[in-house]
Amino acid sequence: MLLTIDVGNSRIKVAVFEHNKQVDFFIFETNEALKNFENIFQKYPNLQKIILSSVGKLDEEVVNFIKCKFQTEIIDHKSKFPFTNLYATPETLGIDRMVLAAGATLIYPNQNKLIIDAGTCITYDFVNAENQYLGGAISPGIKIRYKSLNNYTSKLPLLTLSEDFEIIGNSTKSAIHSGVINGVIFEIEGFISQYSLKNQDLTIILTGGDAEFLAKRLKSTIFANSNFLLESLNLLSLYTQKND
């Protein structure tokens, strides 16, 4: 039984895997981490291992609590990955992006793969058919775009994601929704189109907090899995065990 932990910029996601099958899932705010981990460990006292990936800030007290309870592997740049990293500045590459690339490589080896993570930021990561990580792109996520319009103007209101939006916004609020949501959709479709032109048989994986919302509105054929990073951690743990 394995526990995977994804510490993001705003929330923590946790999944329990048994025989490579996800059996439980938790999500909570970072400031509620200690209480939630105590509850999880009480519910699953027989965990064999914990594997953790972090791009956010997790208190040292919480990290030490986790380490004291169970065998814990914290993924970093020195961890083993199933791809060749050709990023020009590998030490600056986000651990979350590396874990996603690892999961995609293990599931779709020797295929061209584009992983799109629609969270706080939208990241694009490309691994070619030779299992070489080449890089990608980073852009503002949906929430950041809404906040930026409010923060950097004097009169535009702060809005949140809406299911109701059109191409032509006939009010300030509807124009903001159109610009933010359609802007993200057009951006993603544009990236997919350009990558597809240059790479045959491209497999596209969409993940992150906004994955389900976007998947219903994208024209491209994609594999949508909002918790792909947690599954990738499970796969990466198995990979490291086999290659130790």
UniProtKB/TrEMBL annotation:
Binding positions (ATP): D6, V7, G8, N9, S10, R11, I12, K13, T120
GO-annotated biological processes: coenzyme A biosynthetic process
Pfam families: Pan_kinase
Subcellular localization: Cytoplasm
SUPFAM superfamilies given in the database record: Actin-like ATPase domain
TM region(s), chain numbering: none
EC top class named in words: transferase
Note on cofactor: A monovalent cation. Ammonium or potassium.
InterPro entries xref list: ATPase_NBD (IPR043129), Type_III_PanK (IPR004619)
Major subcellular site: cytoplasm
GO MF: ATP binding; metal ion binding; pantothenate kinase activity
GO terms under cellular component: cytoplasm
Catalytic activity: (R)-pantothenate + ATP = (R)-4'-phosphopantothenate + ADP + H(+)
Keywords: ATP-binding, Coenzyme A biosynthesis, Cytoplasm, Kinase, Metal-binding, Nucleotide-binding, Potassium, Transferase
Listed pathway(s): Cofactor biosynthesis; coenzyme A biosynthesis; CoA from (R)-pantothenate: step 1/5
This enzyme's EC code(s): 2.7.1.33
Role played: Catalyzes the phosphorylation of pantothenate (Pan), the first step in CoA biosynthesis.
Family: Belongs to the type III pantothenate kinase family.
Subunit structure: Homodimer.
Database matches in NCBIfam families: baf (TIGR00671), PRK13320.1-5 (NF009853)
Protein name per Swiss-Prot or TrEMBL: Type III pantothenate kinase
Organism: Flavobacterium cheniae
Native organism taxonomy: Bacteria, Pseudomonadati, Bacteroidota, Flavobacteriia, Flavobacteriales
Gene: coaX
